[in-house]
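Possible race condition, two jobs.
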Amino acid sequence: MLMAHPAVLRDLIDQYEALAAVEASDADSAGARQRMADVAYTLCVSTGTRDIDAALIAARHQLPGARPLDDSLLNAG
């Protein structure tokens, strides 16, 4: 499997978290919801996962400084 560059993953995580904050404060923002769905899909594809929670865990696990003995990825499902 191809691995996304850590900088790309960091950017996607940041975008997703920012959009989640916007959605929480403005539930009527269809544009923000669509962008959030797009970023979630890209994170899933980039990490080889099927849902956003697993994608966020996998993406964070691939970032520099991730703890090599962290088993949270194994317990995600």
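Job #2 (started ~2 s after job #1):
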Amino acid sequence: MPNSPCVLVWFREDLRIGDNPALAAAAATGLPLLCVFILEDEGPRPIGGAARWRLDRALAALESDLTRYGGRLHFLRGAAETLLPQLTQAAGAAKLVFNRRYGGAERAVDARVAAALAGRVETFNSALLAEPAQLAPRSGGHFKVFTPFWRAMRDRLAHAEPRPAPQDLDFATWPQGFAQLHRAALALSPSRPDWARDFPEPHAGEAGAESRLRHFIDEKLDGYETMRDRIDCDGASKLSAHLHFGEISPRQIVAAVRGRPAEKFLIELCWREFSTHLLHARPDLPWGNFNARFDRFPYRNDPEGLEAWKRGRTGYPVVDAAMRQVWRTGFMANRARMIVASFLVKHLLIDWREGEAWFWDTLTDADAANNAVSWQWIAGSGPDAAPYFRIFNPVLQGEKFDPDGDFVRTWLPELARLPAKWIHRPFAAPADVLKAAGVTIGGNWPAPIVEHDFARRRALDAFAATTAPGA
């Protein structure tokens, strides 16, 4: 006996029920829904380790939410362009719905799925306030500078309205004989060694995202503009992972802060949009310089320096504290990301792609667009990039954004007894201060692996050689 018609809902980076256009369109058909998540082994870039762990929590939350509606989230693993046509036929699905993605590999997969199911696929915008096709400069092409992008986007914020969650959903039964997996079988979380054992509970899912947003609005929004750069206190919204996995939409966030003094926060939210627009226009951004001139940049092959940076053993406390934080928690504040990225690219002259790959694997909020564009911004090779001569002094950055040394003490216990005056420059502290704090330079604390003034001159010389006429 054939299955009754249903609608197949393909969840990806939209792991929520509220303000989910694909899910809403499926529910509006009046047909029962078959909800599926596919761990894609082919096509898009494999998800990094920390983000895999975070994805598992997001999927568990969506599973629970769908259960409360009387439904279930089903799991598959493999190539979506193969599995979805097979599942559509086996389930007797009238159509497949999903929300759009914007990376090159993801778009290619989605196009192959749509071609295989010609006429039975509907797609929607779930992740952006305005899609690339809806927002472009008058001269054509795509925005390459953030300021005009922000001006164009700002006019749209007043009209960003989220869809309410559906009141009722009806669900189809899984087709007999079509193999599916349990979520645990996706093996998203590490087993041995469990490097994520100390990761803080992310409070994943819609409820967690809504709670995080409400706490941010009530406790942090008013001081966001001045406190967002402080790394010694919790001034960030910490919504980035919720946004990446689609546990909350940008429309929901904009609507929630409307009427509040939130422009700086909205600018940061729109930087995320800007990065996605850039990735849509240049799918090679995670590995190719936007500015081809930087293809000639004389990056150094320095495995020891790269390893010291990864493990938080550079001798610069603010750099090392941030790198140990991300390893222990999967999170790093935006200012800290800029500091450590500048150090890798400009102090060590190590290719930005090495840092991008490390962040991809260690950040729970690793996002292809934000990660690539932000690294190229620091490296000077991207659109709307920071001037290459902006080379952060890690000592001064630490003293400015962690003035009492609380952040360093949290993540570098070997320096915990140093006075604030010396905690960001232990290599310059008097011998009696070091002895009293139990710090031995070259012993339990490394000497700086490169001297700042030397590194700055070397970086500027490398940039000059790259940009010289005829170079």
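Residues 49-68 form the longest helix (20 residues).
Logs attached separately.
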